[in-house]
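Justification of resources, computational component.

The compute hours requested in this renewal are based largely on the per-chain cost of generating structure records like the one below. Each record pairs the submitted sequence with a full structure-token output. That output is archived, and it is also reused by downstream analysis tasks.
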Amino acid sequence: MELYWLGSGGVLIVLELVVPGAILMFLGSGALLVAFLLWIGVLDHWMGAFTTWFMVSLALIIVFRSMVQRFSRSEEHTS
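The structure output for this chain reads:
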């Protein structure tokens, strides 16, 4: 099950390069963390994995999204 989370996390992070908005990066980071927690044995059931992914992704979005958007905004040049 770790490989599914690892693969989906990687795909979501790569998709962030195509789809702007700074959301998929946090969802992918949450999936990578869940893959790690499954690998070391902290999580062992799919329900715990989904719950952890949801909570971690939501926390990352709430805490870091405004920071990421501030750094990734393009400067509008007016003449």
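The CA atoms of residues 21 and 69 lie 8 Å apart. The first helix runs from residue 2 to 15.
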